[in-house]
Please model this.
Amino acid sequence: PGALLLGTDSGLYERRAASRSWRLVLAREDVRDLAPTDAGALVASGGRLFEWSAERGDARELSLGAGADARAVAMDARGTAWVATAAGLYRRSAGAAEFVRELSIPSGEVAGVASAGETLWVAADGALWSGSRERGFARRIGALEEGWWELCGAVETADATLLCVPAGIWQLGAADASRIELGGVIQVH
Model:
């Protein structure tokens, strides 16, 4: 709220509505992902997780546990914060103080997480998973080759859910899934 954030290879920058200049607010390694919250943003940077406060204009590091290097972050429609890590998928319910590991996804490397409407999408173990905190998670598309399971983003449309991956786009209907291969290089940030 009231700020534009930019994640770069050298940290997190902000620009307030009235300002024309960018201010470095988190000088860390590369910012891998950002997710807006009601009070600011979650930031995955250099394998660590931070919470940036729009009111204070600063970021504080959050703890997830040993080996839980942050890879990606997302906020779902119900205000639950999600973090993809090297040790599994973590969540923090709206209003809660601590993150807990989501047990319906196997422990180990979770490469990505993205929210699309009421559904959360997760990239883990060569597969794309879908679910929610209430329903748990299930493998939706498995045994995928490199480039087709590393989740970059998700959006829900009236007709389908579209998942962006490095090799193209998945178009998912209620009962089917199809690949859309795109020419050239795809970069999603």
